[in-house]
Amino acid sequence: MKRVLSGALTIVAATSMLAACSSNNTNTAQPNTTTTPAPAANQEKVKLTIGSWRTEDVDAYAKIIAEFKKSNPNIDLEFKPTKNTEYNTALNTALQSGSGPDIIHLRPYAAGAALADAGYLEPLDNIKGMSVFSKDTLLAATGSNGKVYGVPTVFSSTQVFYNKKIFQKYNLQEPKTFDDLIKIADTLKKNKVTPFAFGSKEGWILSLTQGALGPSVYGTDFVKKILSGDANFKSPEFVNSMKQMKDLTPYFPDNYVGISMDDMRNMFVTEQAAMMIMGDWEYAVMKKTNPDLQMDVFPVPPVKADGKPTVTTWVDGSFAVNAKSAHKQEALKFMEFLTTKEFGTLAVNELQKPSTIPGIAAKDPLVAKISKYADTISTPYAAVVYFGSGNPTTKATLENSLQGMYLNKLTPEQVTDDVQKSADTWFKPKK
Asked: Can you list the positions of beta strands (E) in 46-166?
């Protein structure tokens, strides 16, 4: 089994998505299935707060907390999410004043590491059950000192959602190569169906799309070459991935430069567009918006016939313990619970995302399919896991420059020049 993840955000990043690791090594340790014995009847009641940006997960965490309380009846937990675009600022303000939630939902990679390095988090290396996660999965919540400060919960995965009814109407099959995908798009366009729900108004959509499509052009080993210094963002492979992004414009909606994520979702769920390159978190939202929508997913097909299809994955977030919490021992019990099969099963079925705990099956067929892709054909979301540093970040530079390209102000080559200049300000290859 192969699990490849990625994700990195700066501490000031505030998107609804990121929530962002590459794991080629499967950890064979078994999930922690033991639970803490019920406390004595006279044990003092303790209340903990959980901070998060996931306002859409309130109902799911109510069930998760109820499961935890079966073995920890003396610990009350309150899931108190903040609007995703306001979470980072609110959390940092609280932590700087010596307060904040007892349990913190960490943005992955650079953002979580920044909080750890600032001394706001409790190390979790000795928590029972942590051995179930691979080192690369734990990278999402590892500080610069090498210590682990968060328990990773679920993965995010980007793939192509498609409308099964529209595909059946025009006798279309899931593509095996990128040429197949273009032929599908041509057929849809000829029949006055928008091939892709897409918009360049929000920058994160662009880095997400490039992260998903890029490996079809430059393969799964190219990022390793950048990390080692054997290639850079001005290499022909990366330039070609920018050209690929530009070449898709005939298949985008009219006025796509002004289209937002909400517009994209609306186009797909109302069946105006046949496909959408998007993260798995949208599945639950779209299913709720239109329960009758017949949708499925396929991986991004390779440009070369002998290439491999891919999806892009990363850790969607981790839970950490506030170093200033008055109830750290009780919070640590919840961290232990997050390593168990009980939590993993609830996470995959209630949050409808792939679990970070190996061997957890999903009841929903589409979530199970997404999880299988994440296990077997995933590749890192490189802009997130490796290039979320700099000021502005290299990821943000990529997004801004791609917006410029779609406004016809920059060429693909100029985009890659901008990205490389940004990386040169902070990134040092490691041979």
From this structure: 46-52, 75-81, 103-106, 151-152, 155-163
Q: Which residues of the chain have pLDDT under 70?
A: 1-42
- Residue among 7, 311, 205 at smallest CA distance from 196: 205
pLDDT value of residue 204: 96
Tell me the backbone φ, ψ of residue 162, rounded to 5 degrees. Answer: -145, 155
Q: Rounded distance, CA 235 to CA 286, Å? A: 38
Q: What pLDDT score was predicted for residue 10? A: 36
Give me the pLDDT at residue 32, please: 59
> Cα 90 vs. chain centroid, distance in angstroms?
22
The CATH code for residues 46-154+316-382 is 3.40.190.10
Q: Determine contact, residues 335/319, Cβ cutoff 8 Å.
A: yes
Is 7 in a helix, a strand, or coil? coil
- For domain 158-311+390-424, give its CATH number from 3.40.1440.10, 3.90.190.20, 3.60.20.10, 3.40.190.10: 3.40.190.10
**Single pTM value for the model:** 0.82
Q: Quick one: pLDDT at residue 135?
A: 85
The SS3 of residue 163 is strand
Asked, as a colleague might, if the bond just before 392 is cis with ω within 30 of 0, I would say yes
Which element (helix H / strand E) includes 355?
none
| Whole-angstrom distance, CA of residue 389 vs CA of residue 391 | 7
Q: How far apart are CA 99 and CA 90, in angstroms?
A: 11
